[in-house]
């Protein structure tokens, strides 16, 4: 596809959604700057450009605060992928995804893909406490998935605990199991009217990450980027006059900012 | 049955008095003039004013603490200056509340009677048993916060609060029972009319909910007599109340600031809240639901309010209600303005360039500037928002923001991006009235960036810095703040002030704060409502200050302690001459304009007419 480089670069929009304090900004920061540092609660939304091979991927880190709720659908407009983020130590943050955030994705692309991400895994999962050997993580995706299911089966906790705060207050309990997240994924597909068999499987699209240690973070973003690009190319070929061409134009000409972003 | 009880925190003990008592006598800084000097007309409010105070404070004799009430109906000060903890009630036997005896059975008795709800502070001013209610509230507050005044104790409630907030650093998880908590220079609380805690500068709102409940009880009680509580003076603290719509803001300060100044600061806090939510949506929320927990909407904004209060304490811009711009050779400032002027898109209304948290230049939409000007307070709120939200600076932020003085009911959309990553000192702020304009506005940034690269602007800006007072060439002058007023030809300009770097001996934070406090004192004298002054020459311990206000400017100067009055006057003449000479460098002189209104018939009011739109902007809640 040599013509791709001649035309305006395809843009993909990836949006991070989820309740405040679940770690969206930290995840993005870990991925783009390889660091975990202090954050302040995001206001509105923050736009980033990430170069992925020859493509520019725009990433919107949105505010989880209820104050900005009304803006969510704007940030989601035309999204090719939405990362629904929760905090594994906070059951409420998972249910918020369904109650508050799912409807915001109505403005996303029809072929938008969804990932459900349980962050702060370092707090509950010894495996996530170590800094990852990122190579082995991104090389074999299925391995990790199988790996990850094991501990949850042992400590299965499918029902929400009555009290959100553990009495000890020191070690937060895992409140959301991966099965809960996968069940939510199924409900999202149904909400979108998508057929489970022709869609991406739940165990591939449900992640547990730690922005703090970096566990699974690259795997998350890179899996999504890889999944999203073919659909963009397909769309480019099928349909040269995209209805969102005006936005694409603006974003396409945003190449100068790349150096300042990532 | 008229009872007014004040309980704020162990030694914030109080006596009532009326606002009018202050008039005619200069508002003293700390040791308030004895209200007993003045006649205290008896109003309907308080035939008897029982007082509540903590026994840990030494019994003062001839204390001159007072509460002032904003009304012609003036309450009397209990002449006995009773400082006992007993609560007198006409209706029934007095219930003894002793904060030291936390296990006091009488406490428990009082507590057992009221319902458990915390939001049940009466908002109905006609509630007949409000006196008793207050008593109950106090009893409850005492029990729940039994740790207060009792070192080393903490209630389960407080522990829970700490646990929950443990993830958040900052002052949120402070032990509200500790002495250190009480010793903060300035506490600020925000609560709803229903007494629900919304914000506390130190300590979690949960842990303080009963304290806030008591504050609200006080506000509503005074209200029930058709009065408005304005302030409470104690030996060590000034408590200032400000009610704005459904919100009540309270400041408890041990600083030397005047009530007026403290109220001004509370107003900034209110405006910052408005800047995030808009006034219209706050009213709408509370119209629907008096008991609404506004913390839900403000959750995550604490750092913005914390940041604001820290700025208010350390940056004289707030005191002067003026904007500080970075001194810049006028040709450079002009070229930056031109760059901004050229990078426009429909519905762009303000383009602002900021370096080191100071203004470089500001360009406004033509029709906007004709109608209204940007108020300094709005700029302060914007700068604070940027400061508080820029921890992760690489991205381009797009967020709704309301400029409360411009229009408290509608949102602008702010594009915020740093031009010099990773240092992140030069920030571009573009305000649009169009929610959907992100990509178009981001494109303006690319243009600006390109032009600035071409002109090497960034490295020129990097060299710009504040100036040293030594440049003025007046030997005894240590520091000054100069704020020119509107003059006919620059009417509608942003109010600005100029000030040199604080240098020795004002290097440490303590010394800087001390100088600011002196300025605040001078400011309060100049702006005293009862006896405003035009010129003050004040010999302090370690320096001499001179403040002067004319129809053209307001000036605060700080000299060596040994300066003579004559010398100081000469110095000021020299200083004014120097400022005049440097004017073009020190101030944004002629803010340029651009025209982006696509439809000429659409005036700047278009931004104001978007009010109905605000519902779907940030809030889809109600
Ligand atoms: N232990 C642990 N803490 C995390 C992790 N990710 C984020 N945090 C912490 O969680 C808090 C919130 O992180 P943010 O990244 O600001 O959360 P957010 O989702 O962007 O929040 P909003 O911007 O308000 O929507 C911060 O104190 C982080 O340090 C993680 O993987 N492990
Ligand atoms: Mg964030």
UniProtKB/TrEMBL annotation, chain A:
The enzyme's E.C. designation: 3.6.5.2
Organism superkingdom: Eukaryota
Q: Which CDD domains match?
A: Rab20 (cd04126)
* Keywords (A to Z) from UniProt: Cytoplasmic vesicle, Golgi apparatus, GTP-binding, Hydrolase, Lipoprotein, Magnesium, Membrane, Metal-binding, Nucleotide-binding, Prenylation, Protein transport, Transport
User: Which PROSITE patterns does this UniProt record tie to the protein?
Assistant: RAB (PS51419)
**Residue numbers spanned by region Disordered:** 151-173
Cofactor(s) the protein needs: Mg(2+)
Any one GO MF term held by the record is: metal ion binding
How is it placed in the membrane, per its record? Answer: Lipid-anchor
Subcellular localization, as worded in the UniProt entry: Cytoplasmic vesicle membrane; Cytoplasmic vesicle, Phagosome membrane; Golgi apparatus
SMART domains named in the record: RAB, RAS, RHO
Catalysed reactions listed for this entry = GTP + H2O = GDP + phosphate + H(+)
Write out the GO cellular component annotations. Answer: early endosome; endocytic vesicle; endomembrane system; Golgi apparatus; phagocytic vesicle membrane; plasma membrane
Transmembrane domains' residue ranges: none
Q: Name one GO biological process term.
A: endocytosis
Family statement drawn from the similarity comment of this UniProt entry: Belongs to the small GTPase superfamily. Rab family.
Q: Which PANTHER family match?
A: DRAB5-RELATED
In Swiss-Prot or TrEMBL terms, this protein is called: Ras-related protein Rab-20
From TrEMBL, chain B:
Protein family per UniProt: Belongs to the MON1/SAND family.
What is the gene name? MON1B
What superkingdom does the record give? Eukaryota
According to its UniProt entry, what is the function of this protein?
Answer: Plays an important role in membrane trafficking through the secretory apparatus.
Signal peptide limits: 1-18
Limits of the FUZ/MON1/HPS1 third Longin domain: 477-583
Query: Which residue stretches does the UniProt record annotate as biased composition, category Low complexity?
Result: 591-606
Keywords carried by this UniProt record? Signal
Which region ranges are annotated with the description Disordered?
A: 73-131, 591-622
Residues forming the FUZ/MON1/HPS1 second Longin domain are 347-448
Compositional bias, Polar residues, is annotated for: 104-115, 612-622
Q: Residues in domain FUZ/MON1/HPS1 first Longin?
A: 186-308
Q: What InterPro entries does this protein's entry cite?
A: FUZ/MON1/HPS1_longin_1, FUZ/MON1/HPS1_longin_2, FUZ/MON1/HPS1_longin_3, Mon1
The name this protein carries in UniProt is: Vacuolar fusion protein MON1 homolog
GO cellular component terms attached to this protein's record: Mon1-Ccz1 complex
One Gene Ontology term from the biological process aspect of the record: vesicle-mediated transport
